[in-house]
Design brief:
437 residues; alpha+beta; Chloramphenicol Acetyltransferase; 2 domains; five-stranded mixed beta sheet; 26% strand
Amino acid sequence: MRLTNVARMGLPQGRLYSYTVEVTGGGDPIPVSFDQARHVGAGERPGSWMAIAFCLPTDATQRRLAQAWVAVVRRHGTLHSVFSPGDPQPSLHDVEVGPGEWREHEVAPGRLTRDVLREVLDAGCTPYGRPSHRLCLVESGDGRPVVVIGADHAHVDMWSLLVVLRDLLAEFRRPAGAAALPPARGFEEHTLELESRPRAPADVRERWHEILGACGGVMPCFPLPLGDLAEPVAEVVEVRDVLGSAQVSGLVAFGRAHGVRLLPVVVAAMTEVTAELAGQPLRAVFPVHSRYDAGWHDSVGWFITNSVVESTDPDPVAAGEAVKEAMRLGSWALADVLASYGGMPAAPGMFAISWLDLGRLPVTTDPALAAQFVGAVTRTDGVMLWFVLNESGLHLRCRYPETPEAHHSVGRWLDALVARLRTLAATPLTEPSVRVT
């Protein structure tokens, strides 16, 4: 499983089709989560989507694929809901969905299929789309069609895209006469559940305020110069293979010798690099998933909330404590925690670090599907770093502003981080391992 963006993804040349379900009516209002309101409230725009692409194991008729997709959309409540502008925040309503139609998109000579795909998803997978998702199909003539499922981020996260892929294949393979997949728990239930939880305790609020205060009253920013970011600029996306599977095993062994898992080791390395290059602690936005119990594992929605991590000590054990603290800080309703800031206090230069260990997710994909997580191309004024750990190793994708200063600063930081992780992965272990807790 790779994490890339639509301008870099592997996609064969071929005929490109998209399928849009028919949307009718509008039911009762549905609760809108804090993050959905923030995302959709930014308005209609291209590049607000995320997608997953994979090879179908067999030839598929468009009719059969469309039937399977309609069943998946009906299974997951957020996929049959639409946003409308509202005051003070957007509103969300359930809708009826039914069979739609396929449309072919011309790939003119000299153009790449992925460039046309980008236009299709930019136009269709928008915050106020009706619907805000598209099923796309690339037929290249090699007998292995490529399916791309895109949706506005307000309705999905990366885990959700794996659920959608799995459910689409299950419906596609379902024998005639067999029952369709039952409805999954809806994301709106999760929103209500989160809102009904107790307020964050005083120590959590105080720690949030301490970290944001150290950042000037805003969310953490990248610690090195990024240039003029008065307005978002074109993005640069770097995808790096950090460690192969054997090197990952070495890094895991290094962590085990210190009594921690892999993520704290990576945070420790980032802490050391940040101190060396910027003379500052590592402070970053730290997305965490909010699927608090197994009952949400098969649901689709934006089950990601933001936390903050502050790591001041490059010792792996200390970094592990920083990760634990970040997980706790992200376990409370942010609308309440950040109320005194008027919402999430984002600022130009915001720095975010995301970690996805595919081996620990309860939803898996067959490597034969050659699946790819696909991001949109957009303008940015911040730095976003994604780590993806899978059977082939540790990879990272980094998005940052296309300015000379950012190219220099982020490039130096990434070079140092990759070098540090490779050094740690090759470190001989001479002491007995400590039990990992």
